[in-house]
Design goal:
By secondary structure, the protein is α/β, with parallel strands linked by helices. The protein contains six helices and twelve strands.
């Protein structure tokens, strides 16, 4: 646990009381939480040094989470923590402003623990009778993808593509992959995710490692496509998904694609057989 406010504002007995309540709330909700194994007050310019100290103390063992208490209205501390721990060292963090430290409120802590549980690979909610939902009567992976482009006037900056995929049989736990798509001097950014084949292949492997079975169905959601780009993106990316599957298995785990219809107020899957878009 890292405390960024001065010690006279964030006293150790308040931190201890907060941890005690967090342990109790976690235990009441099925989470086993121990007292922090590393507690330190630090300044913002010491983040990198402290990160190295924590890694050294862990001695190669996995670090579940680094909990950070931030000063009030701190705008620069949060991104530096995320960059150093998560981007550079793949260590999960949970940040909280000091105003939530005292008095420790069980409801607030419960909300924070839902975030923590997700970050360490837990599942917070699952729908009742999931086995009765037809789509889940066979192993099914749900994926979602988007391609974020830089703002107008920043044409030289790369696009960032992201893919998430479910990692359990009821699509309640997800893994993420991020990719950088360079422009190579082009002013117009490609709407397709050019590395999708490799990303999907890696996601299918992760699903198999997690669920211990191969998916027999794939549901793929794609956001951020205009009406005029839909067919271009569909042809390229469906082909990429097919190729990723065929790299791992000769039999494709899906037979048709349903288009995601978007309006300003809602998004829904077209389910009428006449509107199913055959892809091969």
């Amino acid at each position: 646990m890292l405390m960024f406010p001065p010690q006279n504002q964030c006293q150790s007995n308040d931190v201890k009381a907060f941890c005690d309540v967090m342990i109790k709330v976690g235990r009441d909700n099925g989470m086993q939480i121990a007292q922090p194994c590393y507690v330190k007050y630090l300044r913002e310019n010491e983040i990198k040094t402290v990160c190295e100290e924590i890694k050294k103390k862990a001695a190669g063992n996995p670090i579940d989470l680094v909990y950070c208490i931030l000063p009030r209205n701190s705008s620069s501390c949060y991104p530096r923590i995320k960059h150093e721990f998560e981007n550079l060292n793949a260590i999960s963090t949970q940040c909280m402003e000091m105003r939530n430290l005292k008095p420790p409120k069980p409801q607030t802590i419960g909300n924070i623990l839902q975030k923590v549980n997700t970050k360490i690979g837990g599942v917070n909610n699952i729908a009742a009778d999931m086995t009765k939902i037809p789509i889940f009567n066979k192993p099914c992976i749900v994926m979602g993808a988007d391609n974020a482009h830089p703002a107008q006037g920043e044409g030289s900056r790369p696009s960032v593509s992201a893919l998430v995929g479910s990692m359990d049989k009821f699509a309640c736990r997800y893994a993420t992959q991020i990719g950088i798509q360079k422009t190579d001097g082009k002013k117009v950014h490609s709407p397709v995710i050019e590395s999708l084949q490799a990303m999907v292949k890696n996601m299918l492997i992760k699903f198999y490692q997690s669920v211990k079975t191969k998916p027999q169905r794939i549901i793929f959601y794609r956001d951020g496509i205009s009406e005029g780009q839909f067919y271009q993106v569909m042809l390229y990316e469906v082909d990429a998904i097919k190729k990723a599957c065929l790299e791992l298995e000769k039999v494709l785990p899906f037979s048709y694609l349903r288009r995601l219809s978007e309006t300003s107020s809602h998004a829904a899957l077209c389910s009428e057989p006449s509107r199913r878009r055959q892809i091969w």
